[in-house]
């Protein structure tokens, strides 16, 4: 199965009402683990990279890893640049081969956000790539992008005008979701998703998925959330697994990095496998 577009992945999910895990990876081990899990459960998958990861590893090296790991992939996959306010980074990643981007201009006034998003969509189309847009900041800082202050929500009319004017392929509304670790069960505005989809049938991106309940996921996916972002849960799994296995190594006084890598990779696979089953994408590969 060759690499496919973000649009093909989310449009199918939107039509059939399942969610596709969009998982933020940050090194070779997490990228491979996420892809291995997708192949195992026959799920489409969206591999996401943050601006911080692109800068720390380097766009060319990161894309070379992606090419190597997906050369003979058996399930539909897409490579997405998450929450990027920097137009230069967007241009760099599109030129190298990312096939979708989230231009995050939510800190700008809506009119300026819309103007620049139109430009990004035009640029992406030149590469056959797709664009996710947002006009409201998702609460919380993720990989150095965002704010802990709750942003004001725009009206339905403003959101629809933005979607129609820009031609974005996916839209990410604020519905009470947040990046990072929830301190309590989030209170979500489910009807906002339904209202958007009823007025303009377009796949919705659900951000801040780490920590939501299965019931919340199922409800939002049925309303049209076709792309479900997971970042914090993978970081926690990776670091907690690393810590636990380092403690075992210390107890046994056996310091073998490949043993650590296998254990951590297994936990990454377990997490991603569970996400695909929870979101309903397992078995949906074509």
Automatic annotation (TrEMBL):
Cofactor(s) needed: Zn(2+)
One annotated GO molecular function: zinc ion binding
Name assigned to this protein: Class II fructose-bisphosphate aldolase
Active site as annotated: 82
Sites where the protein binds Zn(2+) 2: 104, 134
GO terms for biological process, alphabetical: carbohydrate metabolic process
Residue positions binding dihydroxyacetone phosphate: 180, 208-210, 229-232
UniProt cofactor note: Binds 2 Zn(2+) ions per subunit. One is catalytic and the other provides a structural contribution.
Signal peptide: none
Keywords: Metal-binding, Zinc
Species whose genome carries this gene: Cryobacterium ruanii
Binding residue positions for Zn(2+) 1: 83, 179, 207
